[in-house]
Specification:
Blueprint: H1 5-9, H2 22-56, H3 60-88, H4 90-109, H5 114-142, H6 146-178, H7 182-185, H8 187-201, H9 215-238, H10 242-264, H11 278-308, H12 313-319, H13 321-337, H14 343-362, H15 370-397, H16 405-441, H17 445-448, H18 452-456, H19 458-463, H20 470-505
Helix pairs in contact: 2-5, 2-6, 2-8, 2-11, 3-4, 3-5, 3-9, 3-16, 4-5, 4-8, 5-6, 5-16, 6-12, 6-13, 6-15, 9-10, 9-16, 11-15, 11-16, 11-20, 13-15, 14-15, 14-20, 15-16, 16-20
């Protein structure tokens, strides 16, 4: 039985709920498109990064911002967009966001400099922030029975994995034939289909008795989150410094002011009473920490396949297919397993497999068996990701009243996007720092004579490969592997602690009581 009163009374009233039919499942198929697109977009971007480096010549810091500017902006605006969708209509916000996402994709494809691409990625993040909470909240509208809702959320969540599985094949072909700009233009057909079909396939929902959007809360949320994220990025990159410390302090001050304001408002952006539910709070924590390891490692694995193993974008994409399919399997199987096994134990066991994958990658070397070993290890990591994505999301959304589903969905997506972005920032910066240290310490005067791009990153070294001695390129690859191994070992430790937390903190939810079954009435 559940001991969280909020989860017991959660969402969805005690009256008998209608069973979803063919129209609702068709609506789910349409709602899966934005999720599919985001998974596709993520895979394509990581595959396109080496080509971007060769064409736009970003510094290592710019390369990191190209990847994580989207995640930082989407994390910053998700809460606002979730609350906005509850007020103006979830389908309406979804269509506005889809149109904006398409326009921003064209902007990114036409970028002629690294800074222009970073700006386009930031706009994509703001547009993307409208998509995820709208789709997930509409799933709650379509599927009122908890068992059906759990399965629908599992399917919705695994569409991200399906996009990642298709992304390597689609992206490899596009990159080989048309260049990196195609990685952004692929969004246009999906956006067009969504805009055409949404008015016919999706219901509109606007929460009753919602007040006006509190713009001061919006400003406080952005002024709190973005400086904190920036400070973490700078701390990971350069260590403790004045700028990073000031950013963290300022961000925490605004975050504290945001929380205080939410407690005073009758209609806040975030209903803080939701955090009284232990399952809700723990699920958010699991999603956040779990995605930090995945975000940073994903970036490093794709770089390893192309910059160390020397694979083409298409070949690298094909090798990234099995991990994405592993996530797909886990996302569908997890809601079924929790009917017999406690959700906390299912999550802990899946994260245990992720720990094994990280440990294998912490010992990975640049050798002939490295590609197959990296793929197998990353597949284990993604088994854990698929499990926490499906079960964690259902625990969060299932704890919220129907009229607050948009805000709850936004919280779920915020911590996941923030986790991915923090993972890229923290683990990417850690590996970059180790790379630079190894390159500066291993060559004496000759190291000081190397071009700045070689000492800055392996991508920079590869872009100058025809001009470099073979020994220098091998040295750069070895330095990259040292950073890769350290990042994987860090992820192994944090994920092991997370598995223990899930097993202990979620043990009160019995098999069949949580993510895949009706809560007790």
């Amino acid at each position: 039985m559940l001991d969280d009163p909020l989860l017991q009374s959660a969402t969805h009233d005690d009256a008998p709920q209608p069973r979803a039919g063919a129209r609702e499942w068709a609506g789910l198929a349409l709602l899966a498109l934005p999720t599919l697109l985001l998974g596709l977009d993520l895979t394509l971007l990581h595959l396109a990064l080496p080509a971007l480096a060769a064409d736009l010549r970003p510094t290592s810091t710019q390369a990191l911002w190209i990847v994580d500017a989207y995640g930082f902006m989407i994390a910053g605006f998700l809460i606002t967009m979730g609350a906005l969708g509850d007020r103006i209509g979830r389908r309406k916000l979804l269509m506005i966001g889809a149109a904006a996402f398409g326009a921003a994709s064209v902007m990114a494809a036409c970028a002629t400099s690294a800074n222009m691409l970073i700006a386009a990625r930031a706009v994509l993040g703001i547009a993307g922030a409208t998509l995820m909470p709208s789709t997930l909240a509409l799933v709650s509208n379509l599927f009122r029975l908890p068992r059906q809702r759990a399965l629908a959320i599992g399917v919705w969540a695994t569409m991200f994995a399906l996009g990642m599985a298709a992304g390597p094949v689609v992206g490899g072909v596009l990159l080989d034939r048309y260049g990196w700009a195609a990685a952004f233009l692929v969004a246009l057909p999906v956006v067009a289909l969504l805009l055409i079909a949404a008015p016919f396939a999706l219901p509109e929902y606007r929460a009753p008795r919602q007040g006006r959007l509190d713009l001061r809360s919006v400003a406080l949320s952005l002024l709190g989150l973005l400086p904190i994220v920036y400070g973490i990025k700078q701390l990971a990159k350069d260590g403790v410094g004045f700028g990073a410390t000031v950013a963290m302090v300022v961000g925490l001050a605004f975050a504290f002011a945001f929380v205080r304001r939410q407690r005073r408002l009758s209609d806040p952006l975030i209903d803080l009473d939701l955090f009284a539910c232990r399952a809700f709070s723990v699920a958010l924590g699991v999603l956040l920490v779990g995605l930090i390891g995945v975000g940073g490692t994903m970036l490093l694995v794709t770089q390893y396949l192309q910059l160390v193993a020397g694979l083409s974008p298409l070949a690298a994409g094909l090798w990234m297919g099995p991990p994405a399919l592993a996530m797909l399997v886990a996302g569908i199987a997890a809601p079924v397993l929790v009917r017999r096994i406690r959700p906390g134990y299912v999550i802990a066991m899946a994260l245990g497999l992720s720990v094994l994958g990280y440990l294998i990658m912490s010992r990975l070397e640049a050798g002939p068996q490295g590609v197959a070993l990296a793929t197998a290890a990353f597949s284990l990591v993604y088994l854990g990701l698929g499990t926490i994505a499906a079960l964690g999301t259902e625990l969060v959304v299932g704890a919220a009243p129907l009229e607050k589903a948009g805000s709850a969905s936004a919280l779920s997506e915020t911590v996941q996007e923030l986790g991915l972005a923090l993972g890229v920032a923290a683990l990417g910066s850690l590996s970059t720092a180790i790379y630079r240290n190894a390159m500066s310490d291993s060559g004496g005067a000759s190291a000081r004579a190397l071009p700045g791009a070689v000492s800055d990153s392996l991508a920079g070294a590869r872009s100058l490969a025809p001009e470099l001695p073979a020994a220098v390129l091998e040295q750069a690859q070895a330095a990259f592997m040292a950073g890769f191994n350290a990042a994987a070992a860090t992820s192994a430790v944090s994920t092991a602690l997370l598995a223990a937390l899930a097993a202990i903190a979620l043990r009160h939810i019995g098999a069949g009581d949580g993510a895949a079954a009706d809560p007790p009435k």
